[in-house]
Amino acid sequence: MGMMTEFKEFAMRGNVIDLAVGVVIGGAFGKIVSALVDKVIMPPIGLLVGGVDFSKLAITLKEASVDAAGKEAPAVVLAYGEFLNAVVQFVIVAFAIFLLVKVINRMHHKPEPAPAAPAPTPEDILLLREIRDALRK
Question: Mean pLDDT for the chain?
Answer without folding.
Answer: 83
